[in-house]
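Posting this for the archive.
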Amino acid sequence: MVEIVLFPDVEELVVGYLTARLTERGDDTLVTRSPPESPPGRMVRVRSAWGEDRGRALSSRFVTIQCTDETPSGAAELTELCFAILRSSWNDPSVPRIRDAVLADRPDDRLPDPDPYVPNYQFTLSILLRGQAQ
């Protein structure tokens, strides 16, 4: 049988990682793949798209992070915090599957505004993942 390399579910990985890092800071912001029917005023939404292979064991995924808050300054602050957390994730030994995270300019992948009256900001990262042989 030919050995294959599987990569982690990047959305699950990012949701778990951001939730843990925010919680460590005393921030109970909801981090989710899809917003609940009645979303809270402060929330982080995570969506991904395919990236590119970088050899047999490495592959990237584009991950868009959308941050909402009740105020524009709160949404901007949350966005900057999430960006800083994810940009440094590849140095965190608790997530060895993340090998790099760099800003990717992909305006075509913008998520729709959750509500035109809710302040939100978003960014997209290219996250390089290490696969696992199966």
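The CA atoms of residues 13 and 124 lie 15 Å apart. The mean pLDDT is 91.
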